[in-house]
Automatic annotation (TrEMBL):
It comes from marine sediment metagenome. This is Peptidase M23. Keywords: Coiled coil. Residues 19-46, 75-102, 149-232 form a coiled coil. The keyword Coiled coil applies.
Amino acid sequence: ISIILMIIISLDAYGQQDVSEFQERLAKISQQIEQLRLKIEEGEEKESTTLSRLERIGFNKELIKKEIFLYAIQLKKANRELSSLNKSIPELETKLDKEKQSIEKILITTYKFGKFNFLQFMLQAENVGTLISENKNLTLLAQYQGKIISNYMKNLDQLETAEKDLQTKKKEASRLIKNAEKKRKELQAQERKNRALITEIKKNKKLHLQTLEELKVRAQQLLILIEKLLKEEISFPINLIPLYEKKGKLPWPIEGKVT
């Protein structure tokens, strides 16, 4: 009897041990499923954030594109105006030189001063005053020529100032284009990086979903197995029949020889 009880107890303990082990496995799988769900949710949030970032990058790229187009127009306009100035300035300088030569010839012919530097002569107020006082006609002529020269020099100064301004605008437009191009390249690099991140997120999500389905199947199988084990009655591997139930045999114990 003690032997039978030991067998029953051991079998019952073995069954309980199996159920407990399966329950532990099921709990572990449930934990893995929950972790995967959290990862999938985090991935979806990250994907949404990355998509929003890509949208902003796309907007900024369009903005940079328009800025580059605008700067290019400004640069083209500055180059066109500079080209026109580069033609006007030499023409004005040529006219100015002719007027200088003309008044120089008049002064040389009238007063026989000989060759002299025009600008130096104009700066000498005493010589100009002497000319004006000695010859009225020369005074009128000199005034007329002087006004022409003054206007030419004024126009020349304005053109040279305009040229400097245009050169400054040209440099600024070129600088802005360069900076915009640099920014555009940075945005393109960010776009490539974020698109690669989206691809990786989707790939991981696919793997997580696949693993999640596999874990669900395993959990379902374990659950069915546990339910079966809990409902099953313990069966013994041998059929224990009491000896006194055997027909044709004497009750136990007996004395003498049994034939």
